[in-house]
Write a structure and sequence with these properties.
With 458 residues, the chain is an alpha+beta fold. 49% of the residues lie in helices and 12% in strands. It has a single domain, classed as Cytochrome P450 (Cytochrome p450). Strand 1 and strand 2 form a beta hairpin. It starts with 12 loop residues before the first helix and ends in an 8-residue tail after the last strand. Bound molecules: protoporphyrin IX containing FE (HEM).
Length: 458
């Protein structure tokens, strides 16, 4: 890495890492304000990464030649997703796996999942998920509810699981698996060793084995019985690579585990932030409610997902709170990012909170103002909550659809108020939760009333 001129790699790496871990967004803003863009950040066990948070930097990174780009290595989430995961795949293998997976997430196909998403939300409101029935006077934990809804959507859309007993097995297994891979194991690879069944790593390995048992049993059942369904697993079982071969069971299991991990916490976090921001800003909430009321209670969920102000609210939420805040690429050849020369083996990245608050692009970047998305279209190098280039999030259409329909369903069925602790004061800090970052505290809401037009449907 040529670092004679330009940005310097900070000393006191551990101090920087601690600060970045405690308040990632503030740390990155501080570095930008102090040193300009780009700048190096050092991650323990990983090395220095050159970060940019500007439109021109994002353009350069996303348009870099694909043949010199790899995913970061070592990747802290490898134990979660598995070595065959699309997230870790390189080169031709990435192309092959992506060609197989991407059609299952195509926008036209995703539209069919509208009623699955609405039903999952209605069931949560009725108390059939992880929160009690949302009746007036109840206090609900938004994170628990959002996770339960998004997990159910993935289980139904991807695995075709609609039997409540099977769903409960999966929900328990996924919960144990993600909880077992908590902060220390994610951040400190040295802890990833067993100790006669008593170490955190042992608990994680056991939880992963339990989840894999469920996934493998579903794959075997589908293959054995030649069963077909309208879900994504079915599509993957019947898809073929260019050479005519089918995906192996082991690879399919890693891809399915990836979809579970990548697809539920990220969307859940965004839902919590959207509810939080809306309820801190009554005029924004009023405008959204008016749009939903005009559309009427029986509105088709797919149509609902296209409402312009709802769309703007979801985009503004992803702008201010991108659940995956950094996008990384490892280089296998020389490349210059914003004039800084990098060599093979170096890693470069985009800080999405910086990109989404670049003063050259965003007026009053700290404000939650969905109207900005009605006034102007933002390009893929200005607004990139799903990353970009050849590795852009494969589940982006599903996530977008889900965010809009869950939000619309909640807001047309209940009137909420943030519990007093969250009604005013500081915005909670975003901290890492497995693959995503989210508010450090579980934000709670009080159910004020049911919406008169939809109350009988609950
Ligand atoms: C609000 C929700 C979500 C956000 C913000 C999000 C964000 C991201 C980001 C930033 C990346 C990295 C892109 C890059 O490197 O350029 C990514 C990759 C990925 N996401 Fe998502 N994601 C979300 C939901 C989902 C869902 C619902 C699924 C699937 C069910 C999914 C599956 C994946 C996969 C498989 C990759 C790896 C793609 C590749 O390397 O080719 N994500 N996501």
């Amino acid at each position: 890495m040529s670092r004679q001129a330009g940005p310097r790699v900070p000393r006191w790496a551990a101090v920087h890492a601690l600060w970045a871990g405690a308040d990632f967004e503030r740390y990155f803003r501080w570095r930008r304000d102090r040193e300009g863009d780009p700048f190096f950040v050092r991650f323990p066990g990983f090395g220095a990464v050159l970060f940019t948070g500007t439109n021109s930097g994002a353009r350069e990174l996303f348009r870099a030649p694909i043949d010199i780009l790899r995913p970061p290595h070592p990747n802290p989430i490898e134990p979660l997703v598995g070595s065959a995961s699309l997230i870790l795949a390189e080169d031709g293998r990435h192309r092959r796996e992506r060609t197989l997976l991407a059609p299952a997430f195509h926008r036209d196909r995703i539209r069919r999942y509208g009623s699955i998403i609405r039903d999952a939300t209605l069931d949560e409101l009725r108390g059939h998920g992880s929160t009690p029935p949302w009746r007036p006077g109840t206090r609900v934990d938004a994170r628990a509810a959002a996770r339960s809804i998004t997990l159910r959507v993935i289980l139904t859309a991807v695995f075709g699981v609609d039997d409540p007993a099977r769903r409960a097995e999966y929900t328990a297994a996924v919960g144990a698996f993600l909880t077992a891979f908590s902060g220390p194991l994610l951040l400190v690879p040295a802890l990833r060793h067993g100790a006669f069944g008593y170490a955190p790593w042992d608990r994680f390995v056991a939880a992963r084995a339990r989840l894999d048992e469920l996934i493998s049993a579903d794959i075997a059942r589908r293959r054995g019985a030649g069963e077909t369904g309208a879900d994504i697993l079915d599509m993957l079982l019947h898809s073929r690579y260019e050479d005519g071969t089918a995906i192996s069971d082991d690879d399919l299991r890693d891809q399915l585990r990836t979809l579970l991990v990548a697809g539920h916490e990220t969307t859940a976090t965004s839902l919590v932030w959207a509810l939080f921001r809306l309820h801190r800003q009554p005029h924004t909430l009023r405008r959204l409610r008016a749009e939903l009321d005009d559309a009427g209670p029986g509105f088709d969920p797919g149509e609902q997902a296209r409402l312009p102000y709802l769309d703007a609210v979801c985009q503004e939420t992803l702008r201010l709170h991108p659940p995956v805040p950094i996008v990384l690429r490892r280089l296998t050849g020389p490349f210059a990012l914003r004039g800084v020369d990098l060599a093979a083996g170096d890693t470069m990245g985009i800080s999405l909170p910086l990109l989404h608050s670049d003063p050259e692009v965003w007026a009053e970047p700290e404000r939650f103002r969905p109207e900005r998305f009605l006034e102007r279209r933002y390009g893929p190098f200005e607004f990139a909550p799903y990353g970009g280039g050849h590795r852009r999030c494969v589940g982006a259409s599903l996530a977008d659809h889900e965010l809009r329909i869950v939000l619309a369903t909640l807001l047309t069925h209940v009137v909420l108020a943030p519990s007093p602790r969250y009604a005013r004061g500081r915005i909670p800090v975003a901290v890492p939760h497995n693959i995503a970052t989210g508010p450090h505290a579980g934000i709670t809401f009080d159910v004020v009333s049911e919406c008169p037009r939809t109350a009988t449907r609950m």
